[in-house]
Design goal:
mainly alpha; about 70% helix; globular; 9 helices
Amino acid sequence: MIVIWIIASIVSSFMNWLVSTIINNDSLLRSRSRCDFCQHTLFWFDLIPFFSFIFLAGKCRNCKHTLNKKEWFIELFFPLLIFYLFMNAQSFEHFLIHFSIAFILITESLIDIQLQIVYDTTHYLLLALTGLLRLLNGIPLTDSLTFCILLTTALYVVSNKTGGIGMGDVKLLGVLSYLLSLDQFVVAWYITIISSLTYSLFLLLKGHGTKTRIPFIPFISIGVIATLLI
């Protein structure tokens, strides 16, 4: 159990680095973790998941600027999520696939919040994981394919006609309709709509206009992950 927690903590720290690197358009091969404010390169003891933030009192060791609490929250939330998935997995293979799906969805959500961009690479990875999960569960690859195609086509038309949903969201929902059973997809979609409407109402109460753009991927991810946890 401790090993799973440690691995999940390391992966959550890697996730934060990956998102920061992509957002800053840095090289994935050469980039090192650094302070977002003074650009000072961080040492290994500044990167201990969860605990470094506490030891440093939430501030950069070099410039003393208050750090983003989002990264600390990810390092707390992700290990809890992975631990729950591990405890409730049908097998270790199921756990690895659900682990990977959660990692991709959360990473994609964090990027969407910052850039409102969705990379096709994540859709291909999710599609590959869906295929593996179907083979593992003995579900034919052609099962639910018709629903997936019809839904994606309908959302594509809506996106082109109204612009109310982004093409990245359309592609992700199409893949997820193939990943989840029909019942699961309905539940995930319900949670997605409720959570996004709640957040929209919160923004309106805070004085934001009705034309404020809201990243949709995080709410889709909340719906899917919540469904996988049920």
